[in-house]
Amino acid sequence: MPNCPRCGSSQVIKNGYIHNGKPKFACQACQRQFVENPEWRPISAETKALIDKLLLERVLLAGIGRVTGVSGQWLQDYVNAKYKAQPQVTDVPAQKNGS
Ligand SMILES: [Zn+2]
Questions:
Q1: What integer best gives the mean pLDDT of the chain?
Q2: What is the whole-number distance in angstroms between the Cα of residue 18 and the centre of ligand 1?
Q3: What's the 73 CA to ligand 1 centre distance in angstroms?
Q4: How far does the centroid of ligand 1 lie from the alpha carbon of residue 92, in Å?
Q5: DSSP 3
Q6: How far is the CA of 24 from the centre of ligand 1 (A)?
Q7: pLDDT given for residue 2 in this prediction
Q8: pTM of structure
Q9: Boundaries of every domain in the chain
């Protein structure tokens, strides 16, 4: 679900479809209706790899944004999705029996 392009809220609900079949969204915070951000550009695999590296170096998101040119909002979503996909295992010892 995209965030609201006007207020940045994530309280966005699906609100039907527009004529070309694209889903339409409505922001519950500011009532704005919108289709998925037309300025949204897919981030290249190279950029993502760079972001991953910078994250490992504990570079602040604002710094990563400046280096890679992606928006802070996108970075936040990316990091959120990343941590959701990978449960926190940072402090688990690398050694494991049988593998
Ligand atoms: Zn909004």
A1: 84
A2: 19
A3: 14
A4: 40
A5: P
A6: 14
A7: 86
A8: 0.46
A9: 1-37, 45-85
> What per-residue confidence (pLDDT) applies to 32?
92
4 alpha carbon to ligand 1 midpoint, in Å?
5
Cβ neighbours of residue 1 closer than 8 Å, sequence gap 6 or more? 10, 12, 14, 25
Distance 36 CA to ligand 1 centre (A): 13
Query: Tens digits of per-residue pLDDT, 52-99?
Result: 999 999 999 999 999 998 888 889 989 998 888 766 566 656 666 666
Going from the Cα of 19 to the center of ligand 1, the distance in angstroms, rounded, reads 22
92 is written with which tokens? Answer: 């688990």
